[in-house]
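lol ok so funny story. i was supposed to be doing the assay writeup but got distracted and ended up predicting the structure for this chain instead. priorities right. anyway since i did it might as well share w the group, maybe its usefull for someone
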Amino acid sequence: MIRKNQILLLIILVAGLFVWTGCDGDYRRSAQGGFSEVLVVMDSTQWDSPTADAIRATFGREMMTLPRPEERYDLRFMDLRTNRDLEFAKSFKNTIFVAPITEESNVGAFIRAVMSEDIQQRIADGRNFAFPLRDRWFQDQWTLFLSAQDHETLSRKIRESERSLVSYLDEVERGRWTREIYRRGEQAHLADTLMENHGFRFRVQHDYRIGVDTTSFISFRRYLHDNDRWIWFSYFEDKDGLDDIDQDWINNTRDSLNRKYIRGTRDESYVTTEYRRAIETVDTRINGKPALETRGTWNMTGDVMGGPFLNYVVYAEDQQRIYMMEFGQFAPRYSKRRFMNQFEAMAYTFETDADWVPDSVAFAEE
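and the output, tada:
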């Protein structure tokens, strides 16, 4: 049983939560916490509840498309026992507050104090259960309130809404990774040359180098002896959409291009898909363009090597082209999730030019 004075203190603190005014800019500090870290604030007696299990199964779901499965987000559970706990939760980069709307706990009291009577009624009626906020108390902050009539209902709604709930946080994290990737610089001249010669561009990180360049295939590589990474693009003309693109087409096209262009150091060694491991393809959009995202692992035919890949098939209606771009990595010593997050952020900088007209200038690095 929580103490009334604890709830009173929490509610007093809430009075100023949603009141913040700035003059000409936001001068607040940035929220604390690292990439892919999520603080889950719920009563400690409920950490083994169906709701907690649903959060672990969604935000903390294992990514089976990596060489060794890793959780999508690192979850850290905490309770609200003191006002100091609340201040910490309010300062964290990614925070989820979770409790049924009638729960007699400090977390439940906090959620009721934040929500208006109309919102509380909508929660009780089952009309709403998820309330995401951006930059409420600090800069670069994502906060999610989850509430329903009871834990059974709340856990079911979380599982049913997995993609929309997690995708919103994915988008926020992608923006953070984008800022981090290009913080030390980028090669704008290479992006401009891609647009000039091929009709598309993406933001090229500062230390990637050009590999292969043909009429419709371009690759880049960032080589370190213990962390080899590569990116390639290919495109197909006179297409009218993705309706005819299925998993077999993606697999066969990828394997054909990798066999031809992404080769090992030994004779007849080349990258191919590891079909004994999970391969996942989902619909998405890249800068408004319909796309298919495929994740999985590769191995080196003729050698003992392997790693993760991230592939996108994007339809550019303005050019009637289908683009395929792939990101791959060989880094046995490192966990892979953060590099896949970096690749994803880079992929979302992809854009095309509807007015592009091919010329005969060869691709060249300045």
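The chain is about 30% helix and 25% strand. The longest helix spans residues 162-181.
back to the writeup now i swear
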